[in-house]
Design brief:
The complex is a heterodimer of chains A (329) and B (295). Chain A is mainly alpha-helical and 329 residues long. Chain A is built from 13 helices and 2 strands. In chain A, β1 and β2 form a beta hairpin. Chain B is mainly alpha-helical. Classes of the chains: A mainly alpha (329), B mainly alpha (295).
């Protein structure tokens, strides 16, 4: 058998396997609330969407944002405030959160893309910290208490979100739409250009792409989807607090993506599930979460840079046997 | 009472002094970051944690062993520097061939662990560290009252900054260091032990952070969170200054500290934000930073 046919067969097998796994995963998520505490699964889904949005930037554009908590937590505040103080329906609140996060992404992204690499990370971190200080002082966030008792309300005026199963399937639907959006963006011609920027920015420039615009567009999309996740979380938990805008939260989403596999579609979902699960377990054990998070970070960076899903891809699924590891140049 | 722009001059000078103190710490920490980044190409997120470690080692030496401030001023930088060298040997040295972002992520994890350990054992509340007897009290300068210890901090940080600058610009070791920053392979070919140089550099950066920590102990409370709050501001300082020049890092540190102090007088609500706002403006006008060479 020639090498080309072998390659094509392995690629086809890998696609079939992927599709099968995704179908199995969706079935699992439909069944999950009947087996596990629904709130817990909803928390996982919100963070999984957040991590997928983040991965759009780190994994597919090669930009490490250290300030994504600002979009996640900011959207949670916008949504919670609109729903509670103005009596907006939940879908409008979530839309406002998403649009608000996109607007913030436009401002932060515009500043951050003026520098590259390590400076990009520091600028996003600093801008997010500025937003954190703003949230501490601004009256509408209600300071240390946060916005409590946000009503879940009725979706489109019909579906009562106070019924746990209604809430769950709404969250699942948003999650699937969000992840599909990421998949669609990544696999579009636009996504191909993003990847070329990740691989070799100078070559992309010399090919005539206005790299800055593409980076900014990717940043805004990523921020908007992170905002969607944050706004959704505010409706699920019925509050928005300072926790979601801290730099620790920005670190957490990086960890989820790194642990699951940077630049893989499923990795951030797996990573988010594991990190949320771990935190839930540790919360009752008395072992400090920050130490565990920090240790996982160090181990991942030192010996496990592909992450769980990336490692599986590299070992068993990848047709050419090549990894998806970033930064091996 | 003398007034300037409707503000009593005492209040103005008082806040300027606070700004100068903060600026001293910004300068010392951004200096360490710049030294480490220059050679290792790693942004040391653990810098804040090392600063906290310095303050805590000083505090623990005092509480458990009765070792006072002055000996601690020597012991703490040595201890933190040694810790830094171990970290570099064991872990960071494996990351040099990779994207620099991995260095940032590793040191972020390290910062979380160091901070987590101290939070676990000592909680989040601050522990007071008394001003050493020699520097207790204050001096009346005629126009304002200067607590002696604060005057000492400003002086000490100036000495540390100028000393480090001289070490790097004027000594043989410094010339190796600068050469290795430009072209490590070539310097290695000339028979200089570059890996050792990298270890020493990270140790020096860590020691600077530790020294800043013990200097800060009597000014701020010794708490596990003291470093992480500071490090992000220092990152903004580094973005403003650009890490291309050591002197730039120092000058920017003092300048932004003073700007923060001034803001506290005229518009206190914005004092937390002003460093970040300045960063944003500098990015708009001079994307490479005030002293930066890399665009």
């Amino acid at each position: 058998m020639s090498e080309a046919t072998l390659y094509a067969e392995r690629a086809a097998a890998s696609v079939r396997l992927e599709r099968g796994l995704v179908a199995l995963g969706i079935l699992g998520l439909v069944a999950a609330p009947f087996l596990i505490y629904p709130i817990f699964v909803m928390k996982m889904l919100c963070f999984a969407l957040f991590a997928c949005a983040f991965n759009l930037l780190l994994g597919y554009t090669g930009l490490l944002s250290f300030g994504h908590a600002a979009f996640f937590g900011g959207a949670a505040y916008f949504c919670a405030y609109a729903v509670k103080a103005w009596g907006w329906p939940p879908e409008a609140g979530i839309l406002l959160g998403t649009v608000g996060a996109a607007g913030m992404g436009l401002v932060v992204g515009f500043l951050a893309i003026r520098r590259q690499g390590i400076y990009f990370a520091m600028i996003t971190l600093a801008m997010a910290q500025m937003f954190y200080f703003f949230c501490v002082q601004a009256p509408f966030t209600e300071g240390e208490d946060g916005i409590q008792g946000v009503p879940r309300g009725h979706l489109f005026g019909i579906l009562d979100l106070n019924v746990p199963m209604n809430m769950y399937f709404f969250v699942l639907a948003i999650f699937l739409i969000g992840v599909f959006a990421v998949w669609r963006i990544v696999n579009s011609p636009f996504g191909m250009i993003l990847r070329s920027i990740r691989e070799n920015e100078n070559r992309a420039i010399s090919l005539g792409y206005s790299v800055g615009r593409y980076k900014l567009a990717a940043f805004v999309m990523s921020a908007a989807l992170a905002g969607l996740a944050g706004a959704l979380k505010a409706i699920v938990f019925q509050f928005a607090t300072l926790t979601d805008v801290t730099w620790q939260m920005s670190g957490e989403v990086i960890l989820m993506t790194l642990l699951g596999g940077i630049g893989t579609m499923v990795g951030p979902v797996v990573g988010a599930g594991l990190v949320v699960g771990l935190e839930n377990t540790l919360a009752t054990s008395g072992f400090p979460v920050t130490i565990a998070t920090g240790l996982i970070f160090m181990i991942c960076v030192l010996i496990f840079r592909r992450g769980i899903v990336g490692e599986i891809y590299a070992r068993w699924l990848s047709p050419a046997g090549e990894g998806s590891e970033r930064g091996k140049h | 009472m003398t007034m300037i722009f409707g503000i009593p001059i005492q209040a103005l000078l008082g806040q300027l002094l606070v700004g100068l103190i903060n600026g001293s710490f910004y300068a010392m920490l951004s200096l360490g970051l710049a030294v480490i980044f220059g050679l290792l190409r790693i942004i040391n997120f653990a810098h804040g944690a090392l600063y906290m470690l310095g303050a805590f080692i000083g505090y623990l030496l005092l509480v458990h062993l009765g070792i006072g401030y002055w000996p601690a001023l020597i012991i703490v930088p040595l201890a933190v520097g040694l810790f830094g060298m171990v970290v570099e040997r064991v872990a960071l040295s494996r990351l040099y061939r990779l994207d620099p972002l991995y260095g940032l992520l590793f040191t972020f994890g390290l910062a979380l662990v160091i901070e987590g350990v101290f939070r676990f054992y000592y909680g989040v509340s601050g522990n007071p560290y008394a001003v050493p007897a020699l520097l207790a009290g204050g001096t009346n300068l005629g126009f304002m009252f200067l607590p002696n210890y604060r005057g000492w901090v400003v002086m000490a940080s100036l000495i540390v900054c100028i000393g480090t600058w001289l070490l790097i610009e004027k000594t043989r070791l410094g010339s190796y260091l600068r050469a290795a920053t430009e072209n490590p392979e070539l310097v290695q070919a000339f028979g200089v032990n570059v890996p050792l140089l990298l270890t020493l550099t990270y140790g020096l950066g860590a020691a600077l952070a530790g020294l800043a920590g013990i200097l800060a102990a009597p000014v701020y409370q010794v708490s596990p969170l003291m470093g992480s709050d500071l490090i992000i501001v220092v990152f903004a300082v580094v973005v403003v200054g650009g890490m291309g020049s050591i002197l730039g890092a120092i000058v920017t540190g003092y300048m932004l500290g003073l700007a923060e102090g001034l803001t506290k007088v005229f518009y206190p609500e914005a004092s937390n934000l002003v460093v970040f706002v300045i960063m944003a403006i500098v990015l708009l006008l001079r994307p490479a930073g005030l002293f930066g060479r890399d665009a």
